[in-house]
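To whoever is on call:

I kicked off a structure prediction for a single chain this morning and the downstream step that reads the tokens threw a length-mismatch warning. I double-checked the sequence; it's 83 residues and nothing unusual in it as far as I can see. Pasting both halves so you can look.
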Amino acid sequence: MTPQRARELIERALAQVAPEADLTALPPDADFRDLLELDSLDFLSFVETLSDASDYRIEEDDYPALTTVAGGADFLAARAGPG
């Protein structure tokens, strides 16, 4: 998976969890949980949506890598494989 494709999946998953959020204003290295005011259930929903979309099982140990768009894209690109 390319980093660009991973970013698209992350943004799509965030849009489902926080549909009112302006994702274009979201800095790639900012902790989106704080900026979008996601609670723990919102974040879990984001992780589940992202896991389904990427066909990659995301474990709880992986959560710290998924707190920014840039970090999440790097994580998915490195682990989800080609395609």
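Update from on-call: the warning came from a stale cache, not from the record. Cleared it. Sanity check on the structure: The mean pLDDT is 92.
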